[in-house]
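Entry for the shared binder. Reason: the reviewer on the internal report wants the predicted structure included alongside the sequence.
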Amino acid sequence: EKVKISYNTGNEKLLAKQVTVFDAMGNVKFRKELKTASGEVDVEVTSWLQGVYIVIVQTGDTSLKGKLIKN
């Protein structure tokens, strides 16, 4: 089972550097380096438990945050 994480910094010159997914306990479940302002990342979640995960896309000085819910 895969999910697709889409990201967009809103500025072509502001590149996303990394996407990280954490579980509720703060453990890193997924991390990938990025080098574009927008795009998509496929994440394999078959072995993950049901619940809410925090997605953070880091740029230079800021980060974009979102939630991923696995049913």
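Summary line for the report: The beta strands are 2-8, 18-22, 28-33, 38-44, 51-58, 63-70.
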